[in-house]
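User: Please fill in residues for this 795-position structure.
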């Protein structure tokens, strides 16, 4: 930057009330950020020599300290090499930034046990006036360190998982409107390109909030989404938006470092980021808590680093955009390296736990819809996510026998109660279903000939190719192992064909929960798999090259994946089935040498379900699935525990409200002559058969109920897409919403077999099951069910 441009920038910063105060005393800090700034300075006084784990305390409570010191030592070595080699700015950045910013790229929880891989040395301060303060404090109390044996070894990797909350832009243009009236290198600059900016990804609850209808537009009669009424990103020509950036970086080499020039170069971009937050705060009229703009500014020249806090200060006549230095240090020294890493950890903790939640609260105050604090689409947050994220592992591990359910039940051995007016069943019994389209090189031609026309075939494989672009690569035997682990179904080697010679299969999964037409809670794993040689036959070598870029998913990761899907308790699974939860697999590439990460998301499952439903429908003869070898279907019933410990697969769902007798009543959204109208699930408790009628009668006048849509195998996904991934509706009282008379046929039928002497069990060892609709109805699917069907275990 030449002298003329520097002077022009200096003058314009004064005109815009942009102020750099340097290491200002605490009295000049804003009250809203005082604790944050004090914590940064406290971390900036840590000493490498005294920062170590003690055998009695830190090795248990803070096992990550060892790796933090290792990272600090590695940062020192990289900095010394860069200085000795007199690297330019790009060389310094490539060498140093990945280590310093490591926390913004990785997961914070262990993919095995879902406990914490690390915590900030000081947890980020949050004002008690924030609406989420109490829930955050409760989550923090529950967080425990990972206890996995090999996790904290000196040579263990620390790249488990990926952080899907944040993203960044490197040298991307931040637009200025009006353009900057800067003389020198350019005149009338419309944009600037800072070295790096971090912000939030447009996912989950943030996306829901921004896509919701704004209160102001709704009241004015000009309905608009929030994202159309407020500015959310300063960047132009983006793909996925980087929302409300909170950290900006500018670097110079050690040879040409000038910290004053760095400040002038970044001043207007800092103001731009603060203005986004400031305008959001003003739009909320203070109803979303105490949301105060804050941007962190990292500037560095070679080995010398500065950390500053930037905030907006409202005065009577104008707004001041203020930056105060909080820490400066030299990363060629152990103390400086350690201090910088601890400060970045703290900023990450603040962005994840405080800043993002503050934004959600502020946006909620502007929205006409309820925006949950939890974020089911961000699957990397263990206590608020709905699935696991794991990183690649290069150690192939076979499926362990423990992945199979220990308690498998048979419907013929247990009591079944089934009537057109209602069903009584044990909520602890879950049905696991597996459905797959499995295309090898030998099955390409039979699959093509199964379609009525060449046009229908072409349309289908076009949809398959689009879905597989976000697939995982698996070794050939893995799919068989998945089905065996899920339903205990072993597949013999295909006869009549030589083995498929493919090295990999490309696979997409959809995992869904629902209630079947007989009111059986179901967890179904839907799989679309195509071998590499089949891909070459179907779409050519060009598409194979595209698919080969998909990350490799190992047996170890698949074992963790299945264990997590099978982990929920009976009551959590019932809640997920009622709300028809559904997720699909995805992957995310990471920059540099970091391996790709794997995860699951809620938005995209419908495409897999719709495709598989279309294929299954075209291959169904009467009520039976065609025996084509490329179609696989199996199922199994097993018992679940009433409650389980550890992270939850569906923590965003409200827990079901049990009646005092331990039951849950669920009503059907749509009435059908072939589907019972409702179900009473016995969740917790044991009752004699004579009590069944009394339980149902009691629920009719004092119990609450939920609603769902039971699904038949022939259900078109288009009929129930609106029900997928919806929140649990609040329980309602039957007597105020429905009629007591609607229960009379059900109660009368139950009273008819009081004398059977059988026992209906809930959480006990003998579950009550309902016969499937195939067993209780005639060949005519529309035949109405008119009688109770009873079966029980023989003594």
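Assistant: Residues filled in for all 795 positions:
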């Amino acid at each position: 930057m030449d002298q003329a441009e520097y002077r022009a920038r200096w003058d314009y910063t004064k005109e815009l009330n942009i102020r750099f105060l340097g290491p200002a005393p605490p009295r000049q800090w804003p009250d809203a950020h005082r604790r944050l700034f004090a914590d940064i300075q406290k971390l900036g006084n840590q000493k490498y020599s005294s920062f170590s784990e003690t055998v009695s305390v830190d090795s248990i409570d803070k096992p990550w300290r060892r790796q933090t010191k290792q990272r600090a030592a590695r940062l020192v070595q990289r900095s010394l090499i860069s200085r000795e080699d007199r690297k330019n700015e790009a060389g310094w950045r490539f060498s140093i930034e990945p280590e310093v910013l490591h926390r913004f790229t990785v997961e914070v929880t262990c993919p095995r046990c879902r406990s914490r891989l690390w915590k900030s040395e000081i947890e980020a301060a949050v004002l008690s006036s924030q609406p989420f303060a109490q829930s955050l404090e409760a989550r923090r109390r529950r967080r425990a360190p990972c206890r996995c044996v090999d996790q904290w070894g000196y040579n263990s990797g620390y790249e488990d998982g990926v952080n899907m909350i944040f993203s960044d832009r490197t040298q991307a243009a931040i637009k200025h409107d009006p353009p900057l009236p800067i003389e020198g290198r350019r005149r009338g600059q419309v944009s600037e390109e800072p070295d790096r900016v971090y912000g939030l990804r447009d996912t989950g609850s943030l996306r829901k909030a921004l896509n919701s209808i704004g209160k102001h537009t709704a009241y004015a009669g000009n309905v608009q989404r929030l994202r159309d009424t407020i500015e959310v990103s300063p960047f132009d020509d983006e793909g996925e938006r980087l929302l409300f950036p909170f950290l900006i970086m500018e670097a110079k080499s050690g040879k040409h470092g000038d910290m004053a020039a760095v400040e002038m170069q970044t001043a207007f971009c800092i103001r731009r980021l603060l203005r986004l937050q400031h305008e959001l705060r003003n739009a909320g009229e203070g109803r979303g808590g105490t949301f105060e703009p804050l941007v962190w500014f990292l500037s560095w020249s070679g080995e010398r680093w500065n950390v500053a806090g930037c905030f907006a200060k409202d005065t009577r006549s104008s707004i001041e955009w203020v930056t105060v230095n909080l820490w400066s240090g030299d990363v060629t020294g152990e103390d400086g390296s350690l201090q910088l890493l601890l400060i970045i950890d703290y900023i990450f903790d603040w962005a994840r736990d405080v800043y993002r939640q503050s934004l959600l609260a502020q946006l909620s105050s502007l929205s006409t819809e309820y925006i949950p604090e939890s974020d089911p689409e961000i699957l990397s947050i263990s206590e608020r996510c709905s699935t696991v994220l794991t990183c690649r592992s290069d150690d192939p591990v076979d499926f362990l026998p423990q992945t199979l359910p220990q308690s498998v039940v048979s419907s013929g051995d247990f009591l079944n109660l089934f009537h057109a007016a209602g069903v009584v069943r044990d909520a602890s019994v879950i049905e696991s279903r597996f459905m797959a389209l499995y295309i090898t090189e030998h099955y390409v031609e039979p699959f093509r000939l199964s379609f009525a026309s060449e046009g229908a075939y072409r349309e289908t494989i076009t949809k398959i190719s689009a879905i597989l672009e976000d697939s995982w690569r698996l070794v050939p035997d893995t799919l068989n192992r998945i089905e065996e682990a899920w339903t205990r179904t072993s597949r013999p080697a295909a006869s009549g064909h030589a083995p498929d010679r493919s090295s990999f299969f490309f696979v997409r999964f959809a995992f869904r929960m629902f209630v079947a037409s007989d009111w059986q809670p179901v967890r179904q794993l839907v799989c679309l798999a195509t071998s590499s040689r089949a891909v070459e036959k179907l779409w050519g070598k060009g598409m194979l090259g595209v698919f080969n870029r998909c990350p490799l998913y190992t047996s170890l990761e698949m074992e963790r994946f299945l264990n997590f899907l099978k982990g929920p308790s009976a009551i959590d699974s019932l809640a997920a089935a009622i709300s028809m939860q559904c997720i699909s697999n995805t992957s995310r590439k990471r920059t540099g040498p970091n391996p790709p990460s794997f995860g699951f998301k809620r938005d995209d499952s419908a495409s897999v379900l719709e495709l598989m439903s279309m294929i299954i429908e075209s291959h169904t003869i009467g009520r039976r699935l065609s025996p084509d070898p490329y179609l696989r279907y199996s199922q199994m019933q097993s018992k679940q525990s009433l409650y389980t410990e550890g992270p939850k697969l569906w923590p965003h769902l409200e827990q079901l409200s049990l009646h005092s007798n331990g039951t849950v009543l669920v009503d059907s959204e749509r009435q059908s002559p072939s589907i019972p109208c409702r179900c009473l699930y016995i969740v917790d408790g044991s009752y004699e058969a004579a009590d069944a009628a009394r339980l149902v009668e009691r629920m009719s006048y004092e119990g609450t109920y939920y609603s769902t849509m039971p699904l038949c195998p022939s259900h078109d996904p288009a009929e129930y897409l609106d029900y997928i991934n919806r929140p649990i509706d609040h329980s309602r009282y039957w007597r105020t919403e429905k009629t007591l008379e609607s229960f009379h046929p059900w109660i009368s039928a139950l009273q008819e077999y009081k004398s059977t002497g059988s026992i209906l069990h809930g959480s006990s060892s003998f579950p009550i099951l309902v016969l499937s609709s195939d067993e209780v109805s005639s060949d005519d699917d529309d035949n109405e069910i008119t009688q109770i069907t009873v079966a029980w275990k023989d003594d």
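For context: The first helix runs from residue 3 to 15.
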